[in-house]
Amino acid sequence: MTRFAPYLFSLMLLFVAACGGGSDQQAEEQTADTQAQATEQADDVRTIEMVGIDRMKFVVEGEEEGIKTGEKMGDYVLLESITAEPGEELRIRLTTESTLPASAMAHNFVLLTMNADATAFANAASKARDNEYIPADMEDQIIAHTDLASGGETVEVTFTAPEETGEYEYICSFPGHYSGGMKGILNVEG
């Protein structure tokens, strides 16, 4: 039996090393992060990582090419506008940071057509609770939108920027958020 002892010891070390080093949850999170990064690199879609905060604002972590930011808001800066080329594919990934219940605080991203009346849309949206605050009779004024995200949730939408240059307003259609300043401009520039 002594001639197999070195092999058994090596086998035991290999087993212990393979079993240690982190939880299954950590491994799953790392795998999900790696897959998300690989997807972004593979599809070459520019992704804007937005955060919706309780102050009813779209914010980002900091400056980056193709966005204009404003005042500092806690750990973030206000997202004022996004610049895109005609026909450019964009991905908006929106995470809501809130401890309030979903009925009191949730966010979405709604990109409106160039000639849409954002105020009229937001007013109609406030009455469309059963449709996640997207007014069914005004869907022709939407280029793209996400679902609602409550605290800790992330939603995303991928879309192609319009071919026509100009300014396209985006808003959060949750009641009161547009009037509270949760809006911005997609500038399509040739």
Automatic annotation (TrEMBL):
Q: Which residues form the signal peptide?
A: 1-20
Q: In this protein, which residues make up the domain named Blue (type 1) copper?
A: 96-189
- What domain of life is recorded for the organism? Bacteria
Database matches in Pfam families = Copper-bind
Q: Which GO terms describe its molecular function?
A: copper ion binding; electron transfer activity
Which InterPro entries does UniProt cross-reference here?
Answer: BlueCu_1, BlueCu_1_BS, Cu-binding_ET, Cu_oxidase_CS, Cupredoxin
Q: What keywords appear on the UniProt entry?
A: Copper, Electron transport, Metal-binding, Signal, Transport
The cross-references to PROSITE patterns, in alphabetical order and at most eight, read:
COPPER_BLUE, MULTICOPPER_OXIDASE1, PROKAR_LIPOPROTEIN
Entry keyword Transport: yes
Transit peptide listed as a keyword: no
**SUPFAM superfamilies, per database record:** Cupredoxins (SSF49503)
PANTHER family the UniProt entry points to: AURACYANIN-B, OUTER MEMBRANE PROTEIN H.8
Q: What is this protein called?
A: Blue (type 1) copper domain-containing protein
